[in-house]
UniProtKB/TrEMBL annotation:
This is proline--tRNA ligase. PROSITE patterns: AA_TRNA_LIGASE_II. Residues 100-340 form the Aminoacyl-transfer RNA synthetases class-II family profile domain. It comes from Tetradesmus obliquus (Green alga). GO terms for cellular component: aminoacyl-tRNA synthetase multienzyme complex; cytoplasm. Its EC number is 6.1.1.15. GO terms for molecular function: ATP binding; proline-tRNA ligase activity. SUPFAM superfamilies: C-terminal domain of ProRS, Class II aaRS ABD-related, Class II aaRS and biotin synthetases. NCBIfam families: proS_fam_I. Residues 26-58 have a biased composition (Basic and acidic residues). It holds the Pfam family ProRS-C_1.
Length: 547
């Protein structure tokens, strides 16, 4: 049963109000954690039938436009579309079935692909002793403030506090050291699908930054660097595939600067997305080559074919539920979610529209026809929802399914029954077409593919329009303040990056960072100089304000 739209509205308004109180100015770090208020979520009352619906109809949907207040629009959207419920631990969110089933699509796709590479799934515990966590002290140091600890069981303080995994290098690698003895034990390629906890103090945003999140983390070990290097890029291609092929979100693939790479890694590769509406870059997923850094720390050593000793070459790579947030932000509009067909939990919603004057046999025939379409589409693996509810008007139902982002709405009214046609309405463009019954089974899958392709193309055009090629500081600042990214020649120096971050911060906007050094580099002109330091440029870097 769907919730009463009025009740939902009230809850949304309350939750958004809660959020807004705590919201710092854009780019500003909150000083102190706000103590979460106990949740006051109201019972979602089932809808009452009858004449009240028309009045309620006007209240369904979002009260904020994407262009007017992006972050308010987003907070409202994720709740109203039933993806998320807020929780009384600040920075934690409930993923409702509409969100979780999209995560399952991402999981299935990625899981199938890594298994083809020979990666196996496993599960390691979520608790880490202090001693083990400190094995990689140097790399954890910067992250230490985000590690959450269990210090008490029942009423007794624990002898030694136990950390909750923020990532699992230290959990897994002591066992890699035990399991890897000979070159015959390599490669070792494990992945786990888990939750992790990072007690961040930056302002939380559903999906994008939460204190507990879901991810996969892959941890692999090889005999040679060449094998490790190859895998880093294969995995990064899969990440680009998740974003572009499933979520219809364009990304740039590249390498992180030394300042932005994972401190424990030899190098870090990344897929970078961008939210045009607030001008923020967002790291989509990272694939690291750890080199021999961790194998040396954890003693992951093997006997080589010629009876020598060598430390293993390792990679680690992770993709989180943040990916869903990027997709929601990219495609959503003032009516709600716009879901790319490949991840949409339901790809088509069929809505029969009987007239109040229709005879019972006519209604029955119409409902039978809806059932037949559902069966036929499901037999070609289309995910179908049907909405037979009689206590809502067609308009209310259209709004409801638009809010939830279903890619195609199929309408079947009395005239369509006479003409043996249906109406197909696209969520992404609003375009409608009449389709004869005998063509529905072929037209719907074709249209879904079209929508998928069009959504990516549209997002790609917007993304590309947000990349400004600049060579001077002034042009760089103009690009940033225009909510764009800047592709700029630079000297690839950490000090310069720090300096740029400071200098590009303004009263109401944070400083810019390198998002990545794109793998696809335009030619660097002879004598090109760094836009920020004037020193000889080494490459083109993509810069932006970012999450
Ligand atoms: C937070 C607290 C403690 C990120 C942290 O990117 C440690 C860490 O090591 C930490 N936040 N990281 C880096 C994670 C590196 C790497 N781990 C496997 C990934 C992908 C999956």
């Amino acid at each position: 049963m769907s919730p009463d739209p009025v009740a939902v509205e009230e809850v949304v308004a309350e939750q958004v109000a809660d959020l807004c109180v705590a919201a710092p100015a854009e780019g500003e770090k909150p000083k102190k954690e706000k103590k979460p208020k106990p949740q006051k979520e109201k019972k979602e009352k089932p809808a009452q039938g009858g004449g009240k619906e028309l009045k309620k109809e006007t209240q369904l949907g979002l009260s904020t436009k994407k262009a007017d207040d992006f972050s308010k629009w987003y907070s409202e959207l994720v709740v109203a579309s039933e993806l998320i419920s807020y929780y009384d631990v600040s920075g934690c969110y409930i993923l409702r079935p509409w969100a979780f089933s999209m995560w399952e699509v991402v999981q299935r796709w990625f899981d199938d692909n890594i298994k083809k590479l020979g990666v196996q799934n496993a599960y390691f515990p979520m608790f880490i002793t202090e001693d083990v966590l400190n094995t990689e002290k140097d790399h954890v140091e910067g992250f230490a403030p985000e590690v959450a600890w269990v210090t008490r069981a029942g009423n007794s303080e624990m002898d030694k506090p136990i950390a909750i995994r923020p990532t699992s290098e230290t959990v897994m690698y002591p066992y890699y050291a035990q399991w890897i003895r000979s070159h015959r034990d390599l490669p070792l390629r494990l992945n786990q699908w888990t939750n992790v906890v990072r007690w961040e103090f930056k302002y939380p945003t559903p999906f994008i930054r939460s204190r507990e999140f879901l991810w996969q983390e892959g941890h692999t070990a090889f005999a040679t660097q060449a094998e490790a290097d190859t895998e880093v890029r294969q995995i990064l291609d899969f990440y680009a595939g998740v974003y572009q092929e499933l979520l219809a979100v364009p990304v740039t693939q590249g390498q992180k600067s030394d300042k932005e790479k994972f401190a424990g890694a030899l190098y870090t590769t990344t897929v970078e997305a961008f939210i045009p509406d607030n001008g923020r870059g967002v790291q989509g997923a990272t694939s690291h080559c750890l080199g021999q850094n961790f194998s040396k720390m954890f003693g992951i050593e093997f006997e080589t074919e010629d009876h020598g000793k060598s430390h293993a070459w390792q990679n680690s790579w992770g993709l989180t539920t943040r990916s869903l947030g990027v997709m929601i932000m990219t495609h959503g509009d003032d009516k709600g979610l716009v879901l790319p067909p490949r991840v949409a939990p339901k790809q088509v919603v069929i809505i029969p529209i009987p007239k109040s004057s229709s005879a019972p046999e006519q209604v029955a025939a119409m409902f039978e026809q809806v059932k037949a379409f559902k069966a036929s589409l499901e037999s070609s693996s289309v995910r179908v929802e049907t909405d037979y509810r009689t206590n809502y008007t067609p308009g209310w139902k259209y709004n409801h399914w638009e809010l939830r982002g279903v890619p195609i709405r199929m309408e079947l009214g009395p005239k369509d029954m006479d003409n043996k046609t249906v109406v197909l309405a696209r969520r992404d463009t609003g375009a409608k077409e009449f389709v004869p019954w005998d063509q529905v089974a072929t037209r719907v899958p074709e249209l879904l593919e079209q929508i998928q392709a069009d959504m990516l193309a549209k997002a790609k055009a917007r993304y590309d329009a947000c990349v400004e090629t600049v060579t001077t500081w002034d042009a760089f600042m103009a690009a940033l303040n225009n909510k764009h990214m800047a592709l700029a020649p630079w000297a690839d120096e950490e000090e310069v990056e720090e300096d740029v971050k400071k200098r590009s911060a303004t009263a109401d906007a944070m400083g810019a960072k390198t998002l990545c050094i794109p793998f696809e580099q335009p030619p660097l002109p002879e004598g090109a100089v760094c836009f920020a330091s004037g020193k000889p440029a080494k490459n083109w870097a993509l810069w932006g304000r970012s999450y």
